[in-house]
Amino acid sequence: MIAPTALFALDTLLTEEEREIRSTVRRVCDREIRPHVAGWFEDGELPARELARTLGSVGVLGMHLDGYGCAGMGAVSYGLACLELEAADSGLRSLVSVQGSLAMYAIWKYGSEEQKQEWLPAMAAGERIGCFGLTEPDFGSDPGGMRATAKREGGDWVLNGTKMWITNGSVSDVAVVWARTDEGVRGFLVPAGTPGLTVNDVKHKISLRASVTSELVLDGVRLPGEAMLPGARGLSGPLGCLNEARFGIVFGSMGAALDCLETAIAYAGDREVFARPLASFQLTQEKLADMALELGKGLLLAVHLGRLKEAGTITPEQVSAGKLNNVREALEIARKCRTLLGASGVTLEYPVIRHSVNLESVLTYEGTSEIHTLVLGKALTGISAFS
User: Fold this and answer.
1) Handedness of CA 154, 160, 165, 170 (dihedral sign)
2) How far is CA 355 from the centre of its chain?
3) What is the CATH number of the domain that holds 198?
4) What are phi and psi of 59, to 5 degrees?
């Protein structure tokens, strides 16, 4: 028997440092996450603050950023960390992605030096948590339609509006909120506890239950002028952040798929059907072989995109291709693995159904499959189908 990734000799494409980072994150997940995550999922909770400090202590938060206490690692190292985090649970990778690739990246890329110094070192250490307020109840795929506004009053800004489906919302120390102004869309840092800011957690989720998801309501939130991110003007600001987060999903989704496939292989070897191991049947082996092929192709794509990102040549369309392919294939792998586990596959005794329902959310956020399909369609034809 060989590991599914061995079919593609994936490790030969990685440096020793990248393999060590992957192993370090895996050890943290094995010790701190896997023994508890099924219970967190069942209870609909996540000890986000404790986990943030743990992940900060090993340098995972904002690890692809330079300076301000961040590790400054390469794109492939960050991707491999996302892979291991999502192999434990998509909610955990979401916590890290929102912290590092959305909230921290927005401050790192568009913030003033004072904002960077105030927030980034503590966020890298996991002592402070951030969230990213772009999506609204009526505007997800079309962020240009946002209704949240920020108006000048003297030297201050006054924000009004609602943001929805905000990961880390109620546990955050700062929210990066995007709002429409007379100067176009601008970003603002809204500290927790600011008068007029109300945060309500989303209940009754079936997917991403081991994750904090919230609604942000801004009712006359008054901020000083220096709360605005000076380097971001227009939708290119938040969309640039989303591209960072999508890259992590290209790797992370393959982590969920790998965990499902490894679980299914082990189960099929132990489970006896008609006095034979389930793994001995041709249809079982066909399923496993097909899934291993799609997993391997997705991992090769992820590493290739990581090298392009490190070289500074990656394009948003390439990230869309990676997100579209890898999440779609990961979800198919999770569903197929569930069939191999039979009735056991719908219980939390095994991680497969948890990954499967989580991936339903991953399929939607950071751009739905439909949106990424149209991004590729525009790239191929030169014609936009969005409007």
Assistant:
1) positive
2) 14
3) 2.40.110.10
4) 80, 20
CB of 254 within 8 A of CB of 332?
A: no
pTM above 0.90, yes or no: yes
Residue 135 in tokens? 């999506």
Residue 141 has pLDDT above 90, yes or no: no
Q: What is the pLDDT of residues 23-73, one digit of tens each?
A: 999 999 999 999 999 999 999 999 999 999 999 999 999 999 999 999 999
**14 burial class (0-12, 13-18, 19+ CB within 10 angstroms)?**
middle
386 found inside a domain: no
One domain, residues 255 and 373: yes
Report the catalytic residues. 366
Both tokens of 22, joined, read 């992957």
**Among residues 76, 93, 124, which one ends one of the domains?**
124
Please indicate, yes or no, whether residues 102 and 176 belong to a single structural domain of this protein. no
Question: Would 329 be classed as within a structural domain?
Answer: yes
CA 160, CA 104: separation in Å to the nearest integer?
Answer: 23
Are 362 and 294 part of one and the same domain? yes
What is the percent of the chain with per-residue pLDDT over 70, rounded to a whole number? 100
**276 lies in which domain range?**
236-381
Domain boundary among 124, 145, 162: 124
Residues 6+ apart with CB under 8 A from 310: 74, 75, 76
46: left (phi over 0), alpha (psi -120 to 50) or beta: beta
